Amino acid sequence: MNEEQVGNSLPSEEHHEGGFRPMSELIELDDLDISRGGPHYGAFIEEVRRLMDRARLACPTDELALETIGVLKQLNDKLDAAIVDEWSAPTWTRADLPSRGNITLPPFVVDKASRDGVDARITFRTFHLGGNRAAHGGQVAVAFDDLLGMAAAMHAGEVTRTASLTIDYRSITPLDTELRVHAWTERQEGRKVYVRATLHDGERLCAEAQGLFIVLKPGQQ
Q: Could you point out which of 26, 36, 184, 188 has its C-alpha 20 to 30 Å from the C-alpha of 153?
């Protein structure tokens, strides 16, 4: 995103009091520092995603399970030394990475974000499997929630939280396929921001969503 796209959607100092902190550094401005986590953070996140993909379908032997448990324990012990608080983590600062480097989200790339809406490309991987090579509906919901929230915040120029989210699953959402998401605000009534979104595989509609997001007052969580 650029400065024009961001508009006034950035949280202020007041929002940090008991709620959101100032996050101007988390949006892709010309002077954004995307060095947090270092130059290898993207590769680190990708390897974690690869591990998640394999764990989703792995059926290890006893020997492999014990060996893997030992390796993972050692790795977790190493990572303990790197744990920081949520506001210091790279997760929300890495606008140069898919889903801002957030491992909890299906990886997506935002092509456009403005007051008029958000356009993104998203790929559900093996980890997001629901069954029969289709993405789990809950994973689709996670993606919609994040991108609808972005659309609501961009339109309102304020920090928002999800109040309600309804999803209609129209057809199978495939794995390992680049899909298109379009999210936009239908209207705003005071602090209520009504949003919609669609998920497409080419011309085929996979799912659509509608939600209500609430603009937070300063200090609200």
A: 36
